[in-house]
Amino acid sequence: MAAGQEIPAKIKDALAGNPQGLSITDIVKETGINRNTAGRYLDKLLISGQVEMRHFGMAKIYALAHRVPISAVLSISSEYIMQLSGSLRIVFINEAFAQLISTPVSELTGKNIEYTPFVTVFDDVFDKFIGHVKAGLDGTEWSGECAPVRLGMVFSCRIAPTALDNGQKGVSVILEDITEKKRADELLMESEQRYRILAESSNDLIYMIGHDDRVEYVNTFAAGTLGKRPEDLAGKLRNNLFPEEIASRQKGMLEKVFETGKQASEESPLPLHGELRWYDHVLTPVFDEAGHVQSVFGVSRDITRSRQAIEALRISEEKFRRIFEDGPLGMSIIGKDKRFVLVNRLFSRMLGYTREELTGKSFEEVTDPACVSRNRENFDRLYSGELSLIHEEKQYLKKDGMPLWVSITVTPLRDIDGQVLFTISIVEDITERKKAETRLVESERRFRDLAELLPQSVWECDRNGSLTFANEGSFTMYNYTRDDFKNGLSIWQMIDAKDRAIVSAIAMQAFANPPERFPNVIEYTALRKDGSTFPVTMYLSPIVTDGRIAGMRGIGIDKSEIARFETALTESTERFRAIFDSTFQYTGMLTPEGTLIEANHTALGFIGAKREDVIDRLFWETGWWAGDPGRVERLRAAIKKAASGSFVRYDETMKGVGGTVVHADFSLKPVRGSDGNVRLLIAEARDITPQKQAEAALRESEERLRTLLTMTPDIIWQTDARNRFTYVSPQVESVLGYRPEDLVGHEVSLFFEPGCFEKNRDAFVAAAAGHTKSLRVVTCWRDREGRPVHLESHSAPYYAPDGTFAGFSGIDRVLPDKKP
């Protein structure tokens, strides 16, 4: 066999024995043919269609072409096949080719190709195509690509000389659709180009290390990180580029990849330009055609910020844990199922449970039944996003069944998608404040009850003069009705026109001045509903809300009856101020030396500061304390004491943004580390302004009542539901000779003339049943000497909180014409 036929035969035999295909290296190894010779014959076999080639990674894999000879497949081949005679007539064309040019086979066979639709379809490539056909008729075979624009397809074209059935010369044209392959090749090329662009524009260190430990490739960013250019590093030994310790650790990781052929990754530090940076290294093996690891491809990403963020998160979680566990307020975390997930020690102590007993329990189980429905609705609205925060006052039920009033703030904890996972509740025990409010309400009720019994005019109005409260004495004195009050009665309607301007000017000036300069008493001519007038002495006091005069109150005495009321009240009464509904706590964390390291939003909002304005500053130099040397010195002494391990607590006055002043219950709590040393201080200021105001208002109210009881010449008394005296004012001694203790606890009828009590029994029974709101009767008492004394009695029933009749309150005065 000639050499020209022997070599292709050996190659085809080798390929026949390996249907999966062989690389050129494998072919050379198996046949013993020179590599260059094998490559040259493989090209010829590819052109003749006897061998096919495909890419596998970077390698070319060759295999026998599984094609049936053209003579056997002209009619059934999926390729586009056509045979032309020497005169360019179509001798044969298969169905696929005919469909390609949208013409039946019968209309093409026997026609000159230049007069068929082939010319139109292949218009832009037809001239070159005919040139190759004519060359084929002369014995020259051609293979290549053509891409007619009209079809939008790319073909692999082979034009080969052919002996036709009649023995004449002809050519065979075989077209193979390689459109998708071309697109795939273009995409691959584009992908490789994108990869090169990506590698060069990446901010990661990208590199390739060979088996000889030399740098085969490094991207621009990696080279720049080392202060070099890529060409300065290519071919250099890797271990010469890094400190010995770093180079040794890299070598161990590289050797592992070369030995195992598996990807490896680790995090390690890398000193760069005097700074220690952390990188996440991923090393991937690169295989040669024989399947051996020839290089290691590496990507190192700077994770310094990520590690710093993780450390910051750890510190933040530690701070949260300390605040949660050691903070001055009760805290709990509740899941979507309304059950406690986590509670701190203070909250569990508030309710009298252990932490284990509360964990897993529904918050509804420890909530007062009256609050459950509202709490459930607010909880659902918080999870739906309708509410962003809940701040309210509610009642819990302690383990022993006793109620616990709290001020609670509930905030959602969300995931990165904004979905609410849990809620965190901050709870303050306000039981004492609620008790103070209850005492204030009771005092207010007693004031109104007493005001209704007084014959003088007692009223309140806003800054515009519109009445907001008026007692029965006001309606009697001015001849107005309750309906007039409901329809918007004004204090100016009860002042005579000639005095209205001067009184208005006094009021305007009073509203413009501080509360302490408010006028105490003025005199003017009053106007009744019927147009009649009378002189009045009006005792005034301001109504102050949030430090601002919101209105005024007055007690008016008809001077025309001054003789009757000369011993009546001479001082104005003052009402209790409203107590602030709720208070937020101001919380911060300090180093033992006094440097502020954390502050909550409430504290920052109080002085209108941002976090960066105060953090890492000495606590006494911040806006909460600046401007008052006394406060600063007290704070520094307290920090010093707390840093030694003592809990410090005292009352302090604090000034906030806009001049806001609050009284605070301020404390410093030391927090110790595992070594027993004080590691930080928790500063907490609880706004006790409402309690301070309530206590002051209560004292003033009690003082007012004592003054009223002392100044009036009338007997003021109160009985229980069984008609026994529970209180009698000291004036009873000057009128009847009895001491108050002589009457308290005894039935009223024991001190009346026979038949007097029975005479008025029906009126009192009707009032007790709620048929009348007040009584005005004349009673006949017996004084200590047994003499009869006639008194004019004004009384009214009062009721217990549950609405049941509790007794009578009254004022008795001696009738002028029936004095003893």
Written description of the protein model:
With 820 residues, this protein is an alpha+beta fold. Helix content is 35%, strand content 30%. The chain is built from 27 helices and 33 strands. The strands form seven sheets. It has a five-stranded antiparallel beta sheet. A hairpin with a 2-residue loop joins strand 22 and strand 23. Helix 17 runs parallel beside helix 24. The chain is elongated and about 165 Å long. About 4% of the residues have low confidence.
Task: Indicate the topology.
Elements: H1 3-16, E1 22-23, H2 24-31, H3 35-47, E2 51-56, E3 59-64, H4 70-73, E4 80-85, E5 90-93, H5 95-100, H6 105-108, H7 118-121, H8 126-137, E6 142-146, E7 155-163, E8 169-177, H9 179-201, E9 205-210, E10 215-218, H10 220-225, H11 230-233, H12 244-260, E11 264-272, E12 275-287, E13 293-302, H13 304-326, E14 330-335, E15 340-343, H14 345-351, H15 355-358, H16 369-384, E16 390-397, E17 403-414, E18 420-429, H17 431-453, E19 457-462, E20 467-470, H18 472-478, H19 482-486, H20 497-512, E21 521-527, E22 533-545, E23 548-558, E24 585-590, E25 596-599, H21 601-607, H22 611-614, H23 629-643, E26 648-655, E27 661-672, E28 678-687, H24 689-711, E29 715-719, E30 725-728, H25 731-736, H26 740-743, H27 756-768, E31 775-782, E32 788-799, E33 805-814
Antiparallel strand pairs: 1-3, 2-3, 4-5, 4-8, 6-7, 7-8, 9-10, 9-13, 11-12, 12-13, 14-15, 14-18, 16-17, 17-18, 19-20, 19-23, 21-22, 22-23, 24-25, 24-28, 26-27, 27-28, 29-30, 29-33, 31-32, 32-33
Helix pairs in contact: 17-24
| Overall pLDDT | 82
Quick one: biggest sheet?
5 strands, antiparallel
Shape: elongated
The beta-strand count equals 33
Number of DSSP helical runs: 27
Helix content: 25-40%
Structural class: alpha+beta
The amount of beta strand, in percent, is: 25-35%
Distance between the termini: 164 Å
